[in-house]
Specification:
This protein is of the alpha+beta class and 364 residues long. The chain folds into 2 domains: 5-152 and 336-363, Aminopeptidase (3-Layer(aba) Sandwich), CATH 3.40.630; 155-235 and 275-334, Aminopeptidase. The protein is 21% helix and 32% strand. The protein contains 7 helices and 14 strands. β4 and β5 (79-91) form a beta hairpin. It is globular, with a radius of gyration of 21 Å.
Length: 364
């Protein structure tokens, strides 16, 4: 059994981190792998303002696996605080098993002693049974995982809509960045974990490849009532189809035929990249699903988006905005959201005041 060591790694290990990402596939009807070409650390920058990569390495320097601790600014109970995010838990196929996971979480526990965050958020895909069994089981080295909601990832096909609008819809270049950010923070703080941003984050690595021109704005009586942003991350993060299960493999030809005449997204060949963008930061006044529906309709109808297979956004099961997505007949994939505490105190994770959780897919 390879024991090796647990340590923090940096850009010197970028190539090995990218390889480990490529070799890990998420099981399901459609098995996919998340890639971070050409730079793992460039892709990591959108996760928050600070990241630490905990890795296991053999004595001769080979990467056995890794996980990421990020710190981000977000709203909790209406107040802006720093929270943690645990992500990208990956094991290299050559070195799976043994004590790597337990020792890795021991390292995370040591890092948590800096007291920078009160808790962490993490997500696990519903189909990833193996990961849920490992992380939900109470063990000495493991933190406590407290499930709080289910996150639905919706895939929507870009195509022309005939919807009659109640609101004026236009692009973000017609407004100042200050107006857009002020609206996002004012409305976003009504949800748990909504990310906090400043104008200076645009043009920085935290919002890599996102500009104010990428926003779709809804207004009424000359006031902003909703925003959503087109965030294309393919230049630094990719999703590759590894394989399909037998049922989906047989149905794929029929699905792609139906895709020509319906809202069903096209399914590429195994080995190909999915071509999509995020409908990021869907934020509307009073959580009105009609406003979101009109914003998504404008995004789906925009000619510049016809080249994409689909766009995607995430909403939790408790979010009324889901009603604004239904008419697009989206594909839906589910993940479980957890709050994580290293002191294993259930009571430490029960202080939320009932606000609807929101996690931005583009920062997961």
């Amino acid at each position: 059994m390879t024991k090796g060591s647990i340590c923090l790694v940096d850009k010197e290990d970028d190539a090995q981190l990218r390889e480990c990402m490529r070799l890990n596939e998420m099981p399901g009807a459609i098995s996919i792998a998340f890639e971070t070409e050409p730079s793992f650390f460039d892709a990591l920058s959108v996760l928050g303002k600070e990241q630490q990569v905990v890795a296991g390495k053999t004595d001769d320097g080979n990467l056995m696996g890794f996980g990421v601790r990020s710190i981000r600014e977000a709203y909790v109970n209406g107040e802006m605080v720093d929270i943690g995010y645990l992500s990208s838990l990956r094991g290299h196929p050559k070195y799976r098993g043994g004590t790597f996971i337990a020792r890795g979480f021991k390292k995370f526990r040591e890092l948590d002693k800096d007291g920078k965050v009160p808790f962490y958020i993490t997500t696990i895909v519903e189909d990833n049974i193996a990961a849920k069994k490992i992380l939900e089981k109470t063990r000495v080295a493991m933190p406590f995982y407290y499930p709080i909601d289910t996150l639905s990832t919706f895939l929507i096909k870009p195509q022309r809509s005939k919807m009659k609008n109640e609101y004026e819809i236009f692009r973000g270049d017609s407004l100042s960045l200050e107006e857009i950010v002020e609206f996002m923070n004012r409305e976003g703080k009504n949800k748990q974990f909504y990310p906090h941003y400043q104008e200076t984050d645009f043009g920085s690595c935290r919002l890599r490849n996102l500009e104010k021109e990428d926003f779709y704005i809804a207004s009424k009586d000359d006031k902003i009532v909703g925003v959503v942003a087109k965030w294309d991350q393919e230049s630094f993060k990719q999703t590759r189809v590894v394989d399909y299960d037998k049922k989906t493999k047989i149905a794929r030809a029929f699905i792609n035929l139906a895709s020509r005449f319906s809202n069903i997204p096209h399914l590429p060949k195994a080995g190909e990249l999915l071509h999509y963008f995020y409908a990021a930061f869907p934020t509307v006044k009073d959580n009105n699903p009609r406003i979101l529906k009109e914003l998504l309709s404008a995004m789906a109808s925009d000619r510049e988006n016809k080249e994409y297979d689909y766009f995607t956004l995430g909403l939790t099961e408790k979010d009324p905005l889901r009603e604004g997505v239904k008419s697009f007949s989206p594909r839906e994939y589910k993940s479980r959201i957890y709050m994580v505490s290293f002191d294993k105190s259930r009571e430490n994770l029960k202080f939320l005041n009932g606000r609807i959780p929101y996690l931005e897919l583009g920062t997961l």
